[in-house]
Structure formats: C-alpha cells, structure tokens
Amino acid sequence: MTATAPAQIHARLRVFLAAARHLSFTRAGEELHITTGAVSQQIKLLEEWLGFRLFRRLPRRLELTDEGRRMLAAVDPAFAAVDLAIGRLRSGTLSGIVRLRALPSFLATWLVPRLPRLMQRYPAIELQVEAEDSTRSLRDGDFDLAIDLNDGSYPGFQSTVLLEEEVFPVCSPALMNGRPPLRAPDDLDHYPLLHDMTAWRGSQPYAEWEGYLKAIGAPHVNVRRGYMFNRNHITVQCAIAGMGVTIARRTLTTNELEKGLLVAPFAQSVRTGKRYCLLYSGGALGDRRVATVHDWIVAEARDAGAR
Where are the domains of the chain? Predict the structure, then answer.
C-alpha cells in the first residue's frame, strides 16, 4: 500500500465530515467549494486507506454504514475540539466592540440561540446588539452589521444573502378542537387570525396574509380582521397559545413545528421573494472584528439552510 501523508488523511477526513453531515456529496462539495466528483474521489481514497466502506451509495441518497457512524462519532468531536482551539488562538488578537442591528423576531428566534457559539469561539469580541424593526431607516454609521428582511436591494450598502424565506399558515393543534376542519383557505372564516403589521420594510398591515392567499389562488378570502402585532415572533407565540392562525416564516418556526407546538394545516408554502440579508457599508469588512462576525453569521446561515 502506498504511504499516505497525514495532511492527505486530514483533508479526506474533513471531506468525510461534510459528506456525513449532509448525507450528500453534492452539498458537501458546495460547503467545501470543490466538485461533487472530487468529494466522491476523496471518500473513495479514504475508504481504501481504512479498509472499509463509510457510505452506502443508494440510488437517490447516501447512508452511513455502521463503520461510518462509528467513524463520525469519533472524528466529529475531535475536529470540533481542534477548530475551537484554533479559533481561540486566532481570536487572541481580536477584541473590541462590533455593533449589530437585527430584526427583533430574527434576533430572538434565530440568532440569540446561536450567539453562545460566537461567544465561546471569540470571547474577546463584544457585540452591541440593537433590536429594530425594518420600518426604521438604515443609515450608514448606525451599525457595523445589520440583518434585514427585504428583496436584497440596499442602495448605499453592500449585502450578503443569508436565508431565503417562505411563509405558510400555522396554529396550535388545540385551536382546531371543536371547530370546523381547517383544510382549505375558505375554512379560515371559522378561525381568528393574527397579523404581523410590519412583515418587511414598507409592508402594509395585512400584506403577509393577502400575499400568501393570492399566491395560492385564494385572494377572495377576507383576512382583514383579527389581532395585530408589530413583531413576528409575538404572533407566533400567540398562535402557540391558541389565539388564532398566523402566517409563519419557515426560518423562524422550525423548532416549534418539530416539537408539535404548531401545525401547518395547509400543505402549500409560498416563496415570498424576501430574504434575510446581512448589510454593511463599503470597507466595513476591512475591520477584522467585523469580518469575523460577518463570516460567522454567514456560516451559521449556510449550515441552517443545508438542514
């Protein structure tokens, strides 16, 4: 057997971790910025070196073999520990304040649960976080980085797309007890409705509901009634409490749906054309602290989008 350099084994294990996380050579290649063929070749070489198969190549998907699962359980924490140590060493010179503006719902639901990882990796970077709605104008100098939901056009700023958004109705399972079935848009007449009056920059109070119904071919349903709030995560919490049906954003309600706190009564979801973007002024990423936080948020979004 030809000797294999440690650096080659390290690189192939990195490829294995990406493929095992995604169970897809294509997605692993996208994460690592290499071709699908290169991922497949690296995995093949690693399997030959190990002497056993790591994946079952099925017609439309991948599965880890028993050996592959054991390898993942051994390698993943080891690489995580190395990455953490390297991150701490590299962040030794990164200290000071980074000002971050974010939409309150996105901040509370998506970003805050992830911030401990940023704190652990870059302990000397201090975030100053400001929760502000899209209705407040963006002004250069107010922030180093800002997260906004819109169509991606921000004159005077540079932007990085984080996540595309889609919407659909949700409610508590208990809300449907004792009421007519909720199977089609016309059934909404029998249910209270909840609204986010500031769904995105410049939106009208009923825009999300009306846009959703128009997109699925039911613009005749009257949704101009019910409770209104100026925070998306508050409408979601009210829906969990059984107060009514609201329009949910997939990015912000994944956990509640998985836990069964909410159900999506209609199968149809709609791409809004809106996306969460990370904004910054020209030259802002020249500051290593700002660039580090930017890159960390982008990586978290990429990981969330791949799941």
Answer: 6-91, 94-307
